[in-house]
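Deliverable D4.2, example record:
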Amino acid sequence: MVRAALLFSALALVLAGCGSGGFSDKVKSARERSGTNVFRYPIVTSPTTMDPHLVQDGDTIDLLQQVYEGLVGWGPENVPVGLVAESWQVSEDGKVYTFTLRQGAKFHNGREVTAEDVKWSFDRCTNPKLASPVADAYFGDIVGVNERVAGKADSVSGIKVIDPTHVEISLKQPTPYFLGKLTYIAGSVLPKGDVPPESAMTEVGQMVGTGPFKVAEIKPQQLVVLDANADYHGGAPKIARMERPVILDAVTRLNKFKAGEVDLVQLERQDIASLQQDPTYKEQLNFFQRPAIWYVAMNRLQYPPFADRRVRQAFAMAINKGFIVEELLGGVNTIANSIVPPGVPGGDRKDAKVLPYDPAKAKALLAEAGYPGGKGLPPLNIFYREDRPDIKIVAEAVVSQLKANLGVEAKQQAREWGAYLTEYNAKRLPFCHMRWAADYLDPQNFLSHMLATYGPENKMGMNSPAFDALCRQADSTMDMNQRLPLYAQAEDIALQEAVWVPIYFQRDAELISPRVSGLRESLFGHLPHTTVEVSQ
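Output generated by the structure prediction step:
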């Protein structure tokens, strides 16, 4: 998941960015009014949307997964489990899925979910007037989705209502990772007739899902409040309320935790060493390996020299990722010498053909391409998300190493997250530091999905027929033992093409208050907070 886009001006007015971030007196008063049995933890950026059919960024998804559900979702064993669907059957050819809806699954307005709601929700998500940035990427395997997104059909032909409690989904070809893709929040089931069919949700009253929490209040730029759904099909949550203050500044977030004003906080790397030495907080420090990669990307579509593989390889071999990860970021993360991360089948291969750090070879390649000592290269900027210290540290290091090892002058350009993603989605970023986190635990999500010419997230213009051919074969092969060698070959091609330069695999650090118990985990992060308790 990249994920974020500020696509809707009306929504931007509701959920605009919050400057320096932090609690205002108004937010403090709201906290005091909320009483006990409340779970509070910051969101590190203003929510980009409250509409599950439009969301792209992980921070907002963590918020919205409390409110909305699809047919299936992730469980603590890192496999898809039923949410709105109670069970499903798959045809022998792997192309038809028949879902049985869960009895007692109700929307927040009290109405029971029907198969018609499921079909309508997919028709809404793929409606070209809604212009979801993710619909075809995650659901394009379904018959009729591409036609619907392109405005050539009034509904998705591959989704059929059998009766009020059964819905059938037909795929264009066997897709072994389909259930994983279906867990993405854009598959959320919404109530037909109560949600705008062609425009983004912008009012609290429109934000109706089936999840364990309901949207109670949104304070623009400051706070989102969720109340427990007593009628949740999985049982009422143990907490009465969640409060998600918008706090962009990492220091402010940490200080609020130390003051007892929030119960959980994500940490930046520079804070970890001191906390590990603190007798109070070292016991509250938790680490989580995530199936996510941070990388530097070179866009051959926007910066002409990057069309030459020698230039890309030179840049890759001039970046000392070991120094960045071990020295500058304190060794918290894992150096990435492949693209597919640990936790994903076939991930973190030790024999992957990653380009080594070799300044001498890098300098020779750049000269061979016609740019000795960087001479003749057009001006170059590296773009990255603002307000995240670790990201800035990596961008600074890349600029410094390119100058020292190649003589290349590059400048840094920090961008507000939503604006950054608008440029990224439009394929306009020439050079950037970026993350991709798994939506589902399959190498397809990192290879075909991100780097094939037919991949919906190929934003850098990678174009390798050999890579595409291997991925296409692996994408539709049902046997994982046959798929993994194909993806491994494709990954080696991508590493040599050097459109991406892997930097590190993500490992999150969080402070969690001893008041908090019952957190449920998956590789993707904290699962919806149905079992969380907060003692006083």
